[in-house]
Amino acid sequence: MKHWFADGVFRTVLRNAGYLASGKLVGALLGLVALACAGRGLSLTQFGVLMIIHTYASGAGGLVKFQTWQYIVRYATPALHHGDERQARDVIRFAFGLDLASGLVGMIGAMALLPWLAGYFGIGGDYLWIAIAYCTLIPTMTEATATGSLRVLDRFDLIAQQQVVTPFLRGGGAAIAYFCGFGLPGFVLAWYVADLLGDLALWGFAVRELKRRNMLAALRPGMFGVARRLPEAWKFVWTTNAAHSVYAAWGPLSNLVVATILGPVAAGLYKIASTLLDSATKPADLLRKGYYPEIMRLDPREPRPWLLGIRTGLLAGGLGLLVVAVVLLGGKPLIALAFGQKYLPAFDLLKLMVFSLAIQMATFPLESLLYMAGRQGAALVAQLVAVAAYLTLLALLTHRFGLTGAGIAYLLGSVAVALCMLVPTLIAYRQRGRLPWPPVKVAAA
User: Fold this and answer.
1) If you count Cβ atoms within 10 Å of the first and of the last residue's Cβ in the chain, which end, N or C, has fewer?
2) Has this prediction a pTM greater than 0.70?
3) Domain spans of the chain?
4) Higher pLDDT, 413 or 267
């Protein structure tokens, strides 16, 4: 371990993860406050409807938005590293144009489909127009350009600050709705305002930082014209969009499947368990966000980035085992304290899902390594195979065993993702000598 920390890149990964962790820790606590207020201020059915409205918009945004931050980090990082600011600006311009277009398409599509889907998800006619209005958030949810720009410019501290904004506003709004008795519309408004202002805060940070670096022209959106100067731009974004749309929609789709089969009450319990689990997996997510930009500065033909992946994976896996123990010991009293005794069945579900933590955390570097090696197509295939298996298991086991089946399916789905990612990563490592570096042609400094 002493030798690990002698590696400057490894220390940088941990430093950036530390920045993000500071914001995520506060955000997770405030998020629990918001859920606790909603759980106590609403009936089980209303709480489930609130979660379904939010997850529908989040799922729609996840399905249509391109993961342009991946593209920015993959190509703008080496461009800046080699002194080509023009190419870095083109990369960001292309990503920004794509974000705007996909956000608008996603909003229109989600609004148009909701009247036909609302009945399947348990959204009654009284709340249909509220749910449709909530879909206007989808364009602001496509904030990947802002996130990617800040990561490339190594401003993880600003991302950490922004991560507190949404949960702070949501917690405060939920508390007001609870104590003032505003009911379901009040809680929906609290969620809406918090998401909107949180996304705008991230864009504000990105604009300020790009202006400071004399790169504000990067936020002049462009797509087709700019793409002609960027080799493989469309191929990369379409592939990563498909892979990450599947990944981003994993949670919302799971909740909607449970709602369709078991109803809003079960969907609310599932949301509580998955939210607690998602909070517990944040250490791996934070390490991944700090790890990915750093390996983009390294030569993939050398063992160093691959060894860095093993080290960070082992560290995250060890943290995962500790988190599993903490959740098993403290999950039940936490749910009872935060949400009340009527939500304790969520802990039975959480006990099954929590074992996926160590798997997810230990294997988080695999996807980043595939992108570094230019094997985004392999990552897409792995995601599709694993998610198809997971959704099939989720539908079958939930229908047969209820929420217990949903928990078992979640655990098996995590195993499937890990195995499907591991195989192409090992193949890419064995063939690393043939990888191009840098990934794009850059102008001479």
Assistant:
1) C
2) no
3) 2-434
4) 413
